[in-house]
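Quick one: structure tokens for this chain, please?
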Amino acid sequence: MRQLELFVAKNKGSPSSRGEVKIEEITCRSALQRPPWDEYTLNPYRGCLHACVYGYCRMMQRFEDNPPPWGTYCHARTNMPSVLAREVKRYPPKQVMVGSVCDAWQWPEKHFGITRECLLILLKGGFSLRCLTKSDLIRRDFDVLSQYRNMVTLGVSLSTPPPLNLLWEPRASPPEERLRILTEAAQYGIPIYLSLSPLLPGLSDDVDSLSELFARIRRLPLQGLWVDLIHARSGVWRACYPLLAKRFPKLLPLWRKIFFDRGEAQRYAGKLRVRILEAAVRSGLRCRIDLKGYEVTRRCGR
């Protein structure tokens, strides 16, 4: 534990970890989760230090007793590699989503290395991987991911352009850095995708902003672009409301309707679909674009 305490103290002043945080080592009884859809999930950590205000993963706090504020703690499942090594011998190989309710490359991973160990176990066991992150630490694992490039897709998640990211996702790697990760991964031959999860109503969902982003990524060999709506899940409105009320009060009526009026949420999704189509045409983006489970542009091969 002394080594961990030194690591935390050393990293407290870094941009990715500013603020008081608590890191603990815990154990798990299982590694691979099997949700209803045809994919396993793997989450080496509980909690997320990116502290995204809109983060839907905070819903997992309902399974914890008196959890600290979201974004201030990270529990590392240090025995997960050994548990996973047993499970891959019993479970049939299929795709694993790495980081469905946490970022598997958040900065404590630099100390623990749990995610890297699990990647190797899964890939050697014949499991394919779908990785998603907001952390530049993913570069550390390019050697592994490129070695098994036929079994891997790597994505980064974006929600807001600078400087809004400092308000909404204060400890995640900057958006520019995440786009560079995709460029570099492609140079390693790693299949890549981009997830806009979520686009923030009235802040990052207008045609001009989307066109500008699409123009920047249109030359990347993207496997797909995934667009997600703001999640009206447990705790998300409660987390977003103070920031909206303080910095963006004019957006409160729109957000309230999207969160609490299903019909309005569906209408918003329809309008967003039109904006995405217009931005894709305007920017020349030609890849599969998916909005919350349904395709919004034709499939265009490169």
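Residues 12-18, 293-302 have pLDDT under 50 and may be disordered.
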